[in-house]
Amino acid sequence: MTKLRILKRTGLAVLMSCFAMAALACSDDTVTLHTDSGKFLFNISVADEPAEQAQGLMFVKSMPRFTGMLFVYDSPVHATFWMKNTLIPLDMLFISPKGVVKNIRHEATPQSEATIDGGTGVLAVLEINGGLARRLGISEGARIQHPAFGPDAAFPCNE
Q: I need a surface site. Which of 75, 97, 120, 153 has the fewest CB within 10 A?
């Protein structure tokens, strides 16, 4: 086989691998956070039904570092949460319909019944391990890449 053919096949394999990674980065079970400090991929569960949203991460004893739950609403809401029956501290990222983090509640207290107000105009909430948002430099204005935000998102899936 000539060197040119080997290079073409290698290039094709690399290109296919890049497409596979792009598809993985924008799937229902992953979110990618684009921040000033970098890009972070989280494996997630999606809670888009009322029963799933009511259960959330209650009774979860631990969660791997780059794992979380994405609560997705049918339309923007005034998002409020509590930590009753939640055993681990969580960071809650309240996200606009464009996929932009509007507000963050850092290290919500386990078992607390206090209302956590994420504000109005929230289409989704990402819950990750408490303290992780600060450690990774995730702040308001970070962009979330996930199919739930559609083609008009600040960082749509086709990019």
A: 75
pLDDT in tens, 5-55: 443 443 443 333 344 444 445 899 999 999 999 999 999 999 999 999 999
Share of the chain above pLDDT 90, in %: 82
Per-residue pLDDT of 103-146, as tens digits, reads 999 999 999 999 999 999 999 999 999 999 999 999 999 999 99
Contact 123, 154 (CB under 8 A): no
Residue among 151, 33, 53, 25 at smallest CA distance from 101:
33
Two tokens, residue 46: 């999606």
9 contacts: CB under 8 Å, gap ≥ 6: none
12-45 as b/e: b if 16+ CB within 10 A: eeeeeeeeeeeeeebeeebbbbbbeeeebebebe
- The answer for residues whose C-beta is within 8 angstroms of residue 10's C-beta and 6 or more apart is none
How many Cα atoms sit within 13 Å of 77 on the Cβ side?
A: 14
